[in-house]
């Protein structure tokens, strides 16, 4: 519902990762995941505790998707 400014600033990164995974762009997704992880490490204290946990769970989900990534061609 209501998100912090920091969380809103991360939305384009999250959307890009989701798009890259959906389109089988593993390398781009990995770069996005690293960027998201770095942002969370450096600026996570600007987020509410609940937002931090949600983003950490989302990051773990993305990492799991990349580990299970299989080429479809």
What's the short version?
Helices cover 75% and strands 0% of the residues. It has 3 helices and no strands.
Q: Tally the beta strands.
A: 0
- Tell me the structural class: mainly alpha
The largest pleated sheet is described as: none
Count of DSSP helices?
A: 3
**Topology pattern, helix = H, strand = E:** HHH
Beta percentage is under 5%
Helix content: over 70%
Task: Supply Rg.
Answer: 13 Å
Q: Stretches where pLDDT falls below 50 for ≥5 residues? A: none
Q: Give the overall shape, derived from the CA principal axes.
A: elongated
Can you give the mean pLDDT?
88
End-to-end separation:
39 Å
Q: Could you describe the 3D structure shown?
A:
- The mean pLDDT is 88.
- The protein has three helices and no strands.
- It has helices spanning 5-22, 26-43, 49-67.
- With 73 residues, it is mostly helical.
